[in-house]
Write a structure and sequence with these properties.
Elements (H helix, E strand, L loop, with lengths): L1 H30 L8 H20 L10 H24 L7 H20 L5 H27 L9 H22 L2 H66 L6 H16 L3 H12 L10 H4 L7 H7 L2 H9 L9 H6 L20 H15 L11 H13 L5 H13 L5
Length: about 425
Amino acid sequence: MPALETIGNFLLLFTAISCMLLIVFLVLKLFGKQKTLDNKAEFSIVVALSSAVALWALFHVNEHPASPWIFQGISLSLVAFFFAWYVRLLAARKNARFYKALIFYASALLTILNLFMVMSFDLSNPWWRVASVLCSGLVIIVNTIVICRLNQLNLILFYKFVPAFLYSALTVFFVSYCLYLINGNSISRIIYIGTVFCMVIILFTDTMDQLYFFNTRNLNQRIDLLQEEYAAEMEMVEDVVISLARTIDAKDRYTEGHTERVSQYSVFLGEKVGLNEKRLEILRMGALIHDIGKIGIDQDVLNKPGQLNARERKHIETHPLLGEKICTPLKAFKDVRSIIRSHHEKLDGSGYPDGLIGDAINLETRIVTIADIFDALTTERSYRQALSIETAIAIMREEGDAGKLDAELIALFEIVLSDMGLLS
């Protein structure tokens, strides 16, 4: 039947071309510049297996039962051997103890005996061919059972339908192949060629799955490494922040613990406002080092008892600019520089150093300003005694009513203080 023979030849050529494309793709992946595969042995065996399947398909184009069968028999034996090797690597990689070396070595021995039989005996008798096919089939079926067992244990990335499909496809393949070798029926030829084509598709699917698994695993490993490096860097930045904050506190004996308290108040108020985690972290870090510029302020001025004169006040008011200058080279402090520079600004423009008005002062800075003023009022300073919490809040309300501070934030801050048990 010429039409069926043409269809069969087309499927064979399509199968061979598909295998060749898979080979080219894997070779490029194996030897490309981007080293994304660390299981090169496994994918090299897939290349060998695909080559054997391609040879088997090409040797069957225009094949006739009466023609010499040696090349077909050799290529089928190679398919069985490389399939067994591939399954052995899969099982070894997944630590499958049930897959003993005996299975692989028995498969190899059986394949070698089959090759010897193919090359040594006259295979013009179709029953010899059937015996050779069944010999290779035994190797393939045993290893297919191993694949199905691996799949049942969820150890590899085969899809759920693969075990049943492989069992049924291999049964159909070997039955139809043997029938064709015996009687040369064209329909049997179409059936076994079609099952081979389907199994090549499964090989494609499994290989792409494996490639996806290893590529994503490597990508996840790189992401984990970057996250670890980032966490280590942030931990180092955290240490620097804490050291700087303690340095500031140590420089001014009246403000010991001030930066940590301001940071705590600021975060509590930020949570009450509803800031997300990223903005809360910016708020926390900014509050911790908002007074970093005081490192550059004369200690006699910082600790002077009584009121400052105009020259001393002008000097101390430079600390926001000094703080920003100190932190400018540090990328980790990029988002907190506005807090450092502007935490003494007032909504009505009466603050320093820039005289910002209203929305020109961002929310994080306004929060730190409120926390800073509250802690300054409720702790002892060189020029006055600490005020009570109630008195401090009353002063801040007046500032809010006068348009200097954010009145809404002050109201929320009172709730925060109540939640902390500091304000009744």
